[in-house]
Sequence to fold (205 residues):
Amino acid sequence: MFRIAARSGASHARRALGRRAFGSKAQPPSTARNIVWAAGTLTLGGLGYLYVTDASAGVHKYVTTPLMRLLDAETAHDLAVFSLKHGLHPVDRKNDDALLEVTLWGKRVSNPIGLAAGFDKNAEAVDALFDLGFGSVEVGSVTPSAQAGNPKPRLFRVDETGTTINRMGLNNDGVDVCGDRLRSRFWRLVAAQSQQKGETVAALA
Fold:
């Protein structure tokens, strides 16, 4: 009799605690806590963005490059140009030391490291390549008419020597298309410089 009553009392107590637990209202989150979490998230996100978009960051050497090498050589090349063309690339935020400055064809160049023809075949990513830190960028090679080049595969890595065999066959969009892209870039630069000086493009013509 006593044992049954004790069990009944314990069961009643558990039910009462359960109703109290499920019936209690959740406390609203602290405004200060939310502000701290938001500020921390924004800070970490901003620092992460600055790191990933820095051309000297180690992630590009130890992560991006190995991932790109999982692709065949021409696909990796095309993806790189596409990324540069659409602004998905890191930038060199450091100014070149004045000791690196050279003069080329009467023009001042901030450093002597240039990119030769063969990478940006169709003049699609000139400004992005300068953003990477090159002192000069050469586009092409460009032929009078557009041509598809040799059949694929035509670009091969030689891992033993760290080199590449190029049998592309001068695939390019042709001189008219590439020339239009370079002219468009020229006038964008002129317009940007004229706006900085408070001038108009028409006054410069």
Observations:
- Confidence is low (pLDDT under 50) at residues 1-8.
- Residues 81 and 125 are 7 Å apart (CA to CA).
- The chain is about 50% helix and 10% strand.
